[in-house]
Amino acid sequence: MLKVFGCILGRDITLALRRRTDVLTTLFFFIIVVSLFPLGVGSEREMLRELGPGVVWVAALLASMLALERLFAADFDDGTLEQMMLTGQPLALLVLAKIVAHWLLTGLPLVFIAPLVGMQYHLSDGAIWIMMASLAVGTPILSLLGAIGAALTLGLRGGGILLSLLILPLYIPVLVYGSGAVAVSMIEIADTQPYFYLLGAFLLLALLFAPLASAAALRISVE
Amino acid sequence: MLKVFGCILGRDITLALRRRTDVLTTLFFFIIVVSLFPLGVGSEREMLRELGPGVVWVAALLASMLALERLFAADFDDGTLEQMMLTGQPLALLVLAKIVAHWLLTGLPLVFIAPLVGMQYHLSDGAIWIMMASLAVGTPILSLLGAIGAALTLGLRGGGILLSLLILPLYIPVLVYGSGAVAVSMIEIADTQPYFYLLGAFLLLALLFAPLASAAALRISVE
Amino acid sequence: MTINLFKYAAPTAFYPAAGRLIPWFGGLALILILFSLYWGFFETPERLGGSNPQKEYYRIIFIHVPAAWMSMWLYLVLAAWSAIGLVFNTRLSFMMANAVAPTGAIFTFIALWTGAFWGRPSWGTYWDWDPRLTSELILFFLYIGYIALHSAIDDTRRADRASALLAIVGLVMLPIIFWSINCPDPNQCAALHQRSSLSNIESNILTAMLTMTLGFWLYSFATSFARLRGIILLRESDSGWVRKIVEREART
Amino acid sequence: MLEVAALACRRGDRHLFSDLSLTVRPRTLLHVRGRNGSGKTTLLRALSGLLRPETGSIRWRGEDIHHLGDDFNRDLLYFGHLNGIKADLTGLENLRVMATLDQDPASDDDILDALEHIGLGGFEDLPTRMLSQGQKKRVALARLILSNAPLWILDEPFTALDSDAVHLLQTLISKQVADGGTVVLTTHQEVELTRGQIQRLTLGAHDTDMQEPAEEAPSNEGSAPPC
Amino acid sequence: MLEVAALACRRGDRHLFSDLSLTVRPRTLLHVRGRNGSGKTTLLRALSGLLRPETGSIRWRGEDIHHLGDDFNRDLLYFGHLNGIKADLTGLENLRVMATLDQDPASDDDILDALEHIGLGGFEDLPTRMLSQGQKKRVALARLILSNAPLWILDEPFTALDSDAVHLLQTLISKQVADGGTVVLTTHQEVELTRGQIQRLTLGAHDTDMQEPAEEAPSNEGSAPPC
Amino acid sequence: MMNFLQQGGFGFYVWASFGVTFALMIAEVVQLGRNRRTILARVGRLSRLRGQRADAGSHRRHASESSGGQA
Ligand code: HEM
Ligand SMILES: Nc1ncnc2c1ncn2[C@@H]1O[C@H](COP(=O)(O)OP(=O)(O)OP(=O)(O)O)[C@@H](O)[C@H]1O
Ligand SMILES: Nc1ncnc2c1ncn2[C@@H]1O[C@H](COP(=O)(O)OP(=O)(O)OP(=O)(O)O)[C@@H](O)[C@H]1O
Ligand SMILES: [Mg+2]
Ligand SMILES: [Mg+2]
């Protein structure tokens, strides 16, 4: 069981490292989107500070979603997905391994790049820490939920944009609480703990159900 | 010449209409991205009004870019692109026809949906008109420039996100002048004409050179 | 009872039954809607009472609230049929879900539209990021997502099952989404939300509103049955009974 | 033993075949034949459990394959139109992953032997993306050497192979059948077996009007034809 | 007349062939053979101008094809591993678009005749996505009936076709050759011609160590192999 | 009458709401009717096609018919 999990995890990470650009592109997409805003809305400090958490989180949503498009697509196109479904291993386990690999490669880097982005928006150190923590808890939820959408839109023309149509509305709670936590942390009196409890609860739920739902969706899509 | 242009235009539009939802998804992607921001940054009216032009233009950039991913990809995957390159017609002409079809289907609808979005951000009527005009001049530039990137990233894994990396920086002038025009129109004294002259000049330049560049890029990618 | 249910769970039996029911549902819906329009415009006061009295534009309530209710109810119906389809693998349930979706989306749009035209005179803006309005917008996106996914897949069976799964995931997420919009700050959530209640509304207004709701409800039965009949014809087109029906209806 | 009872499949809105019943015993090769579009691929995907048939049942060793689930998959090796190998991994790595997932006890040496045997000696540490169409197919076929699944389902395994490779593959199939396995395959060519017996199934032959489309595509209406 | 002089091609870091010279006259079929991975596809893509060869020249009627550009393309019909038809258009529409681009004067009736001839009567207004692998290939091959290009380059045109279709295609090729055209094709099967002459070219035969990879792939270093 | 139309000065909002609502509902009904007719026509054409399959030219006629109809 663990061996199989490790095998798929290793395979996906190796594949990604063979094409190092793939990993970097998500990161750069995130940075570019975040940097576009000051160009579009002007660079007033006060406003940027207020905007910061929201913009960073929206950019994280978009970056995660764009990267997700390829989560199963490559395996589907070359037939390896079909083979995985026929290997006699629980599909949800394989899916979970793929999701974890995907998050390690596209979600985790966002957490580490966050301070850089926070600086662009003149966030305080405290707020930056909170932002990193909220991204660390929030981005796995994005990957898990997004996997369901990626499985459903597998092999469809215009998959990327259809995926966003399906998934972005489902991302809203993460967006609200993720950016909420950062916004609140900028006010002295307020407490960010409830936000993290909520995000943590989401994460647990998603971890339980999303692999199952994605596996079911894959079975439907490969048919 | 004109017959060939019309043929490709007709073909692409027919293809898109066979899958009507494809057209709608770009539109709804735009609306969803625009609607995410207030959830992330809060819904204070004054702030939204200031944010409006920037958010709308960034969303237009992203929508146009995402839709572009499929501009040549579908034709590449099924080999029709290869065939088009071997038909004895100037490739740049065929490319231009494809770009025009693409803009009619994904860029133009954004112009018409803009008033709705403007309302969500409490923009004034005048600002909404300027926004529509700036989108009408700006989105064709996005399609033209994006085509070059789409041609270059053809057939590469993770094409979508790589494309954004290549193209988003090129989009910056359009973003700056497009959202600039709208922002300026909200101030009484300022004049939006210079913005439109600049955008118009960009459009002409792009119209001249982008099809040639895309055609060259396609030849490289198909090899 | 159960025998009856199973009998009508087959497209063959359902097609003619739906055909007979549609005129009844449609006719009743028309009567109820016309009645409530009459009642709403002529038998109700010119302003809505309460602490913040609204002038005649409050009449939008007669369509706004029923449409908003229908939009939520129909999503439930949609998800329920989807779940039944996935669990029992009955083709008719998927078709049912498919038939309901466009009507639901239309009612959602109506709720948004009428809300906007109510907001302009009463709040001075067509749109605000009020939780209720935002959740309705999200519901609209969910409907559109369902329809878009279904039509993006060519193989009807895959389309049915995939969009059914999406509808169920949407249903699970809906309360979470609505709640997160309603209470973006968990520290002071309870204080934020207040519910206006129906109990202190004048009974004439209530009558018009409830009849309209019933009318909309019957209307959605009629339209979704009609759409369902079309879907059945298309999907069963190579079976004998459909050919017979087509021949019969070509003559009339 | 693979038993198919009253199977009916449809793709889109077309009935491809219905009321198909057959039994494939061990030591047998089932050669599914039929014109282009007669439903061979569809049948094979149904047999491998990838596609749920409209009606009818498929049993493996007496139990429904959809109930068996992963247990059936462990007995099965399916080989479709797609090769199922990752273009960015080398042949060795590809086969290593598949062996782990299949729980085949294949060591790296076994895999290298298999690759050598199938004519890819010297290519084992090249990403398969760098191989030609036929070479890619050979990598995928190397699984046949490594696997010990009793049931093989092969969809047009001979396409794109040169005559050496075709010969090799025929030997592999003969061996599998001789060893008590079951093979289901489609190909437009003839197959010969040295041992074991061949059973033939021809789809769409008894009833040619199945070749006709049952219905026009729904999405095909209303828009003007191009040019 | 197609003249190839001192042609050398490489894919990635491998030299596939070098110093290849040959002349294909009208009324001739050039059958390119070779093991999997010997460079047949590469050669055909070079001949059609899709791939620029490393060194050497390719001349059509005495002029370099890269100088001729679109004029060469008008004389050429290339048929690759991909079918080159849009899945969302019907067979009729696909062929109509191709005819317009090729400036073939084919009316709708001609196209329908061609589809009927190739065995797709009754399928002409179905989106090709609804067709099976072999049926899709047939739609693409209908272009051979409509086109009047003197030079055909066909990369494994027989795969996925059933025996009826193979026979039909052979007839088409014979006719093209008999009418004074030139055909270059690869296939692992034998081809026969009723008229005209066959010229054979076997790649990678004279020198088997070309089958070895010249160099390991650069992207393959440094990361641990999976599992 | 005028009074009724003006709705106390808010006629625009009231009638825009009611108008769009009922316009949408009527449009839905009309569209359903049209949809039904096209489906019946198509299913009918297909079953006729099946009946005629005996004579070989039928596909041709059917196809040119449909392409003529689309143009
Ligand atoms: C685009 C804007 C609007 C949208 C999307 C919208 C949406 C909704 C929804 C979803 C409901 C049902 C909620 C429930 O039953 O709890 C509702 C009910 C209601 N809305 Fe709106 N609304 C909008 C604007 C307005 C405006 C401007 C007013 C009046 C000032 C208004 C007054 C009401 C009332 C009185 C009810 C029924 C009371 C109740 O059931 O609690 N709405 N609306
Ligand atoms: N995705 C699809 N949607 C709808 N119909 C399909 C689809 N794929 C195949 N079909 C239809 O199903 C029929 C059978 O297809 P299948 O691929 O099983 O044929 P096949 O016997 O494998 O043919 P070939 O020899 O060409 O590979 C075809 O006639 C085609 O019209
Ligand atoms: N994209 C590529 N990048 C690098 N090398 C490649 C690429 N494609 C093919 N090759 C190499 O080029 C060689 C020739 O490939 P080609 O596709 O021309 O062979 P082929 O003769 O058509 O074989 P087949 O009979 O299998 O189709 C192969 O050995 C392969 O290693
Ligand atoms: Mg097949
Ligand atoms: Mg080849």
UniProtKB/TrEMBL annotation, chains A, B:
GO terms for molecular function: heme transmembrane transporter activity. One of its GO terms (biological process) is cytochrome c biosynthetic process. The keyword Disulfide bond does not apply. The chain crosses the membrane at residues 21-42, 54-72, 93-116, 128-154, 161-183, 195-218. It is found in: Cell inner membrane. One of its GO terms (cellular component) is plasma membrane. Keywords: Cell inner membrane, Cell membrane, Cytochrome c-type biogenesis, Membrane, Transmembrane, Transmembrane helix, Transport. It is a multi-pass membrane protein. It holds the Pfam family CcmB. The keyword Secreted does not apply. Belongs to the CcmB/CycW/HelB family. This is Heme exporter protein B. It comes from Thiohalocapsa marina.
UniProtKB/TrEMBL annotation, chain C:
Belongs to the CcmC/CycZ/HelC family. Residues 28-182 form the Cytochrome c assembly protein domain. The lineage of its organism: Bacteria, Pseudomonadati, Pseudomonadota, Gammaproteobacteria, Chromatiales. InterPro entries: Cyt_c_assembly, Cyt_c_biogenesis_CcmC, Cyt_c_biogenesis_CcsA/CcmC. GO terms for biological process: cytochrome complex assembly. It is a multi-pass membrane protein. This is Heme exporter protein C. Coiled coil: none annotated. The chain crosses the membrane at residues 21-41, 61-88, 95-113, 133-152, 164-181, 201-219. GO terms for cellular component: plasma membrane. GO terms for molecular function: heme binding; heme transmembrane transporter activity. Keywords: Cytochrome c-type biogenesis, Membrane, Transmembrane, Transmembrane helix. Required for the export of heme to the periplasm for the biogenesis of c-type cytochromes. It comes from the Bacteria. It is found in: Membrane. It comes from Thiohalocapsa marina. PANTHER family: CYTOCHROME B_B6 PROTEIN-RELATED, HEME EXPORTER PROTEIN C.
From TrEMBL, chains D, E:
Gene3D superfamilies: P-loop containing nucleotide triphosphate hydrolases (3.40.50.300). Transmembrane segments: none annotated. Residues 2-227 form the ABC transporter domain. PROSITE patterns: ABC_TRANSPORTER_1, ABC_TRANSPORTER_2. GO terms for biological process: cytochrome complex assembly. It comes from the Bacteria. GO terms for molecular function: ATP binding; ATP hydrolysis activity; transmembrane transporter activity. The keyword Cell membrane does not apply. Keywords: ATP-binding, Cytochrome c-type biogenesis, Membrane, Nucleotide-binding, Translocase, Transport. Pfam families: ABC_tran. PANTHER family: ABC TRANSPORTER I FAMILY MEMBER 1. This is Cytochrome c biogenesis heme-transporting ATPase CcmA. It comes from Thiohalocapsa marina. The gene is ccmA.
From TrEMBL, chain F:
Residues 50-71 are annotated as: Disordered. GO terms for biological process: cytochrome complex assembly; heme transport. It is found in: Cell inner membrane. It holds the Pfam family CcmD. It is a single-pass membrane protein. Keywords: Cell inner membrane, Cell membrane, Cytochrome c-type biogenesis, Membrane, Transmembrane, Transmembrane helix, Transport. GO terms for cellular component: plasma membrane. The chain crosses the membrane at residues 12-32. Its main location: membrane. Belongs to the CcmD/CycX/HelD family. Required for the export of heme to the periplasm for the biogenesis of c-type cytochromes. This is Heme exporter protein D. It comes from Thiohalocapsa marina.
